[in-house]
């Protein structure tokens, strides 16, 4: 991997900052790594090495402010910005230090209305394990649900076809899976990867721009997904669907809502695609299996509630 590496950060709006800090720190089990003068609170998953991946700020409305993908280095960042501009996408630069421990970010708006960023630099603070002869886990991995990393986002907005072109033609992603609408042609949902992961980002066609369906956090095992469900119930977290398995991506999953109604996913599994794999297609008749393989059910809340 030499271009776009991974989803590196996402900024989420919450109603009550301190209630949300308690939720993300003690229930989801993220590690708080800092607060800035704009009132934002920064978190990372325990096994992530960079300073932050999940940032919250207090607001009247829930949802997503922006998300950022880390790229290999500054040369790659400059090249991708030039490529975006040549493709016809306007970019701007957020200065280094605007986000804690984070270098300059190239920012642009996707056709679906989401603000996306690319950046090359974020301070490595480590995962609490040593680089020489590390142990397999530490206290942070045993606090709350404790996912290992921010894995992907699923976003809702109009014109996902135009997003697909940008991700495939400019950013070097490939289309892993898709869902076709009832007409058998229109691509209603797309799962895209820039890596060996089954997806790094996904989009669903939706009339309203800039909406968040979920941020997803990776667990190490199915047992840990089930334990996440235990912890959700012990803390009276509102759960949407699961534990179950998607046909799409084969991910094994639970979806729940944070105290502000932002959906998040704790999942494991799926397969590891290569860029030369042919895209897997789900037709509309099999979408219930794609969504929930054992139950073969289109869950109304899952398909319609976004922030
Ligand atoms: C995922 C995933 C839908 C399926 C979503 C799948 C919208 O979030 O992680 O594979 O049906
Ligand atoms: Fe997901």
UniProtKB/TrEMBL annotation:
It comes from the Bacteria. Belongs to the extradiol ring-cleavage dioxygenase family. This is Metapyrocatechase. InterPro entries: Catechol_2-3_dOase (IPR017624), Glyas_Bleomycin-R_OHBP_Dase (IPR029068), Glyas_Fos-R_dOase_dom (IPR004360), GlyoxalaseI/FosfomycinResist (IPR050383), VOC_core (IPR037523), Xdiol_ring_cleave_dOase_1/2 (IPR000486), XylE-like_N (IPR054560). Keywords: Aromatic hydrocarbons catabolism, Dioxygenase, Iron, Metal-binding, Oxidoreductase, Repeat. It catalyses: catechol + O2 = (2Z,4E)-2-hydroxy-6-oxohexa-2,4-dienoate + H(+). Pfam families: Diox-like_N, Glyoxalase. Residues 6-121, 149-269 form the VOC domain. Homotetramer. The keyword Transit peptide does not apply. Its EC number is 1.13.11.2. GO terms for molecular function: catechol 2,3-dioxygenase activity. Its cofactor is Fe(2+).
């Amino acid at each position: 991997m030499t271009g776009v590496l991974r989803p590196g950060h996402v900024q989420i709006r919450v109603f009550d900052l301190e209630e949300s800090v308690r939720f993300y720190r003690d229930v989801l089990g993220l590690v708080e790594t800092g607060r800035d003068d704009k009132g934002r609170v920064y978190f990372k998953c325990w096994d992530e090495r960079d300073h932050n991946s999940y940032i919250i700020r207090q607001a009247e409305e829930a949802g997503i402010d922006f998300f950022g993908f880390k790229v290999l280095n500054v040369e790659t960042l400059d090249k991708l910005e030039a490529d975006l501009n040549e493709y016809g996408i306007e970019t701007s630069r957020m200065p280094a230090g605007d986000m804690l421990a984070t270098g300059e970010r190239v920012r642009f708006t996707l056709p679906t209305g989401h603000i996306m960023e690319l950046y090359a630099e974020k301070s490595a603070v480590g995962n609490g394990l040593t680089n020489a002869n590390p142990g397999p886990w530490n206290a942070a991995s045993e606090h709350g649900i404790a996912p290992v990393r921010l894995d992907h986002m699923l976003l809702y907005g109009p014109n996902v076809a135009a997003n697909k072109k940008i991700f495939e033609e400019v950013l070097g992603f490939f289309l892993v899976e898709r869902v076709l609408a009832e007409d058998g042609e229109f691509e209603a949902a797309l799962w895209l990867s820039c890596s060996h992961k089954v997806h790094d980002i996904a989009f669903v066609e939706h009339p309203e721009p800039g909406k968040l369906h979920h941020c997803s956090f990776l667990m190490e095992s199915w047992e840990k997904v089930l334990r996440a469900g235990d912890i959700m119930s012990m803390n009276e977290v509102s759960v949407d669907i699961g534990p179950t398995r998607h046909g799409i991506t084969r991910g094994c999953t639970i979806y729940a809502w944070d105290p502000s109604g932002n959906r998040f996913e704790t999942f494991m599994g799926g397969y590891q695609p290569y860029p030369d794999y042919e895209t897997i297609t789900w037709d509309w008749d099999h979408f219930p299996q794609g969504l929930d393989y054992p139950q073969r059910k289109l869950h109304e809340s899952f398909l319609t509630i976004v922030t």
